[in-house]
Every structure is written in structure tokens, then in C-alpha cells.
């Protein structure tokens, strides 16, 4: 590939990255519906015509934003089954502090509207979080009567709900103490050695 | 008191109740900021001049709405310390199905905005939920290293976060199985006999 072609690709990937970052920030701030292509292009400093070129439509852009955030969040997750305890739990908990997670709350409010066009996309975000946690839960570590699926919903739910409380009143939520409580309550097979 | 005075009071309390119900529905649907006194009065079928008379201002109305919702939610909570397990847990879980709880998600999105005027009011909602749960957790039932405060944040968080997942994709969340998982993971002193 000649140098000019390489630079064209770099510019394209760079402009895509800038658009995704600008959209993530604006969706978090104003919500999905309230944000226009013009807002996003202006913030990214890129012509608005390039948005359909990169993403097809606004839902395609949302998908790119959600995928991108998901990657950031999932980086904090441990990679092997049975690896939830110990330092990995610290990583999972540290996701709560990511500025990006505010976006999840803003979008959630739109998702609970009747006939929300972004429901399916958001559902995929939750599903991906559950899938990632689920893959790391050995069924044999759970107490009788507890399915790995239900345990996963509960653990992902705890992270979402602790996050919500911390966003509203950080001074009322001692994340360190909550982490210790999760660790103490985990079934023995998932607890730190 | 004569009959006309009694009827005036009834009408006043009834109009207050209608205004709170209309506001709760509109806040859940459109958010706090997007809802005007005109919308609320029209929906309640009551003159808009009566809103400041009853509630002072819009924040006063929000406070009345949150108090009202809180009463509905807290009705599901057990009333004595150490009473979380068993049927009481069923009641706590059943709060997830209340239509009213959608309001909490819509308002939460506004609360995470910079300089949100309703943050303090919303923080009181979370604080009241925690206080109610906290009062029912005997410290001696918790595993070492777990504070009642952290356990409370975790349990309230689990309810909030399971609720969020269920709102987004009810078919992906088996509330019955999640309840069984919570019960199995509760420390022995809080578990159903």
C-alpha cells in the first residue's frame, strides 16, 4: 500500500474514532433522541456527511458507541472461568468508577419508554455483560437451587445498582466496603483462596 | 365540622392526590424537566393555579411524588429486624414489578446530569430505601469484614440492578430464580429457617 492510501485509511479510522467519542459524550449528556448528527459532527470537528458513510444511520452509530463502551468495561473482567474472586473482583468493581458508565444510565431512561427504538441495542449491552460474567461462573461452585443464570443476573444487577447509588451520592457508598461484602458473600467455590 | 367544610377538605385532598398521580405518570414518561405545570394540571383535570397552592413549586411536587412512591415501595418491606428472609424477601422482590419503579429510572437519568436540581431529592429516595433495609439487618448475622451499611448498599443495589435488567429484557430475567439465588447467598442468620 502506498503512503497516501495508508494515510487515507488512518484518517478514516481516526474520524470514525472521533465520531464515536463525540457521540458517546453527547448521548451521555443529552440522551440519544436529543442528539443530532449536527451536534456530533460539530463536536468531533468532522463533516456531518461522513456519519452515514461510517455508520449507516443513527442506530448504527449508537451500536458503535455501545460496542466501544462495552469493550472498555469488559477489559476490567477476568478472562478465565472461576476467576471472579480476588484481584479480578477489584477490576470488576473498578468499572463502577468509569465516566463512561454514566451513558448507560442516560440510555436506560430512554429504553424504558414505550416503543423505544434503542431497546434491542441496549438489551444486547446487558446480555453481553451477563454472558461475560456467566462464562466465568463454574456451576458447581453455586449453592443448590441457584442457577448460574440467576446468579449472573444478581451479580450484574448488584454492580449496576451499586453504581446507581454511587452516582447519586458517592459519599453514601463505600465501594471498598461493598467489595469486601461481595467477597464475603460469594459461594466458597468463587471466593478468594 | 359542618358538611360543607368536610367536603371542601375532601376535595382538596382528592385534588392533591390527583395532581401527585398525574405528575408521577408524566415524570416517568417525559422526565422531570420536560413536564410543565400545564401538562400536570391538564392530565389531573385540575386548575394549574392549585399546584403552587399545594406544593409551593415544582420541586415540592417532585418531593410529594417521591414520598408517595416510596410509601408504595416500602409497603413491600418487612417491618421487624431480622425479617428479610422467607416471605418478606418475596415482598421485597415483588417491588421490582411495580409500574411505579419506572419513574426511578427516568429520574435517575436526570440526576446524573451536572448540577441536577433534583439530585438531593433523589438521594433521599435511595437513602430511605437503605435506611429501611438497614434497620432490618442484624449486624451479628453478617460474615466478618462485612458492615451492615455495605451489605445494605449491596442488597438495595441488587434490587435496583435486577430491576433495570428486567425492565430492558423481561424474558432474560427469571425473577423467581433470582429470588432463590438471593435466598441461597444470604448469610445463615438472615436465611429462611
Write a concise synopsis of the structure shown:
Chain A is mainly alpha-helical and 193 residues long. The first copy, chain A, contains nine helices and no strands. Chain A has one domain: Tetracycline Repressor, domain 2, CATH 1.10.357.10.
- Spell out the helices and strands of chain A N to C: HHHHHHHHH
Q: Decide which structural class fits the backbone of chain A.
A: mainly alpha
User: What oligomeric state is this?
Assistant: homodimer
CATH architectural type of chain A:
Orthogonal Bundle
Whole-number tally of structural domains of chain A: 1
**Runs of chain A with pLDDT <50, length 5+?**
none
Helix content bin of chain A: 55-70%
Rg of chain A to the nearest angstrom? 19 Å
Let me know the CATH homologous superfamily of chain A: Tetracycline Repressor, domain 2
Q: Which geometry of chain A do the CA atoms define?
A: elongated
Identify the CATH class of chain A: Mainly Alpha
Mean pLDDT of chain A: 84
Number of helices of chain A: 9
Strand content of chain A: under 5%
Distance between the termini of chain A: 52 Å
Kindly report the greatest chain-chain contact and the residue count on each side.
A-B, 54 and 54 residues
Protein name (chains A, B): TetR/AcrR family acrAB operon transcriptional repressor
Pfam family, one (chains A, B): TetR_C_6
Keywords (chains A, B): DNA-binding, Repressor, Transcription, Transcription regulation
Domain HTH tetR-type (chains A, B): 13-73
